[in-house]
Amino acid sequence: MKPSDLLGKSFDCECGRRHTVPTEHLYYSSSAVDRLPEVARQYVAQPEYLIMADERTYEIAGHLVEEALKNDGATVKCFIVPDREGESPITDDETRDFILGQAPTAELYIAAGSGVINDLTKWIAFERKKPFLTVATAASMNGYASSNVSATINGLKVLFQAQACKGVFAIPDVIENAPFDLTASGLGDVIAKPVSSADWKLNQYLFDEYYCQFSVDLLKDLESVYLEQPDKIKKRDGEAIQALFEALFYSSVAMTITGTSAPASGGEHLFSHTLDMISTLEGNQHDFHGRQVGLGSILSAALYEKILTIEAPEFTKLPSEVDKVFWGPLTSIVQGKYQEKIPKSELAARKLSRSENWDSLRVILKQNLLPAQKIKNCLKQAGAAHRINDIRLKDNRLKTEKLLQIWKNANQMRERFNILDLAIMVGIMPGQAEDVVNEWVKD
Ligand SMILES: [Zn+2]
Ligand SMILES: [Zn+2]
Fold first, then answer.
1. Cα 137 from Cα 358, distance rounded (Å)
2. What is the band of 376 on the pLDDT scale with cuts at 50, 70, 90?
3. Average pLDDT in the 2-13 region?
4. What pLDDT, in 10s, does the model give residues 119-136?
5. How far is the CA of 14 from the centre of ligand 2 (A)?
6. Which of 86, 206, 257, 306 is the most exposed place for a label (fewest CB within 10 A)?
7. Are residues 198 and 98 in the same domain?
8. CATH value at residue 271
9. Which among 2, 37, 250 is positioned nearest to 139, based on CA atoms?
10. Distance between Cα 38 and ligand 1 center (Å)
């Protein structure tokens, strides 16, 4: 079965669950926007639409959508999400409340934009209990078919479930010519898959948690296009960019059908989220999600390699408290999440202390993993961020010392167990963190 055969379908999976793909349409073609009016009409009694965009994405795609819908005789309004002090909008509770107060109502919402615009539209449509469609402007992130919104609420980066869009529309010319940083960011996001799915498998093995190999394998064919020829991403080759876009799309499908972000988000994502949170706290700016995730993925893969070579590690449980100095005002909210993980670490230590369990876990994890060198080379040859110095903060670059602080504490912000926790339990983190960083992401 091709991934595209799954759109809008329900099916019984080998994982034991019945999966439903709520997104019913994916058009990646030069005529994608021409198809939109007809698709939109399927979901409304009255064709009354609201297009949400920012100034840039309105210029790139929003106006094309507006025109196509108006030509179809629909009532169309546009809401341009304003920039904040010269910076692009962000997905947080303040912005949501602002939009809910200002944006006209409609029968169906259309996100003209990727990332933040897609998330905000998803959020607003969800709050107003209406369906939405997405017109993508970049292969920059894996939220297109996901029902999750990644937002900052009360200062904490959280993921919560809203609804998935009914259809995604992308014009190849727009996606290929998007600012290259966005495309490279998309690659960084999707390249997390081998390490995030190893983290997921770790949870299944240790705690009998739900896991679905089908959703892990869903992007296999697409993945090989950019993993084997990353330079084609750099050259904005049509086939490679389409593969990247579709891999991001099906990565979000994987999260939606399994009802968890686990297929695409593990310890490498916590590194990026923590960097976001600390930057915001310090009044600084962070880099694109996928650029940070790519770096986190190299580091996670390097940790896995290091840990899996240990023959008979000694396991200790995780420390019971988060680092108060590091988290500052976020301490109590982070501690709340983190402490759910302590009993898990005790359980994991008990289980893994039996050498036959450790040996079988090592074999299982290797099935999903890719070598750190392969991930790094792919990012490097594609022209994506792969060194500490590549990560941009407001007016400077990420420094080694800061990266180390963030990486060492990132495991504390979520309750889900991941490679960073395991590295602490076997004594590699925090002691050898600096060596790993120097070896892999220094240059
Ligand atoms: Zn499944
Ligand atoms: Zn991501």
1. 45
2. very high
3. 95
4. 999 999 999 999 999 999
5. 26
6. 86
7. no
8. 1.20.1090.10
9. 250
10. 32
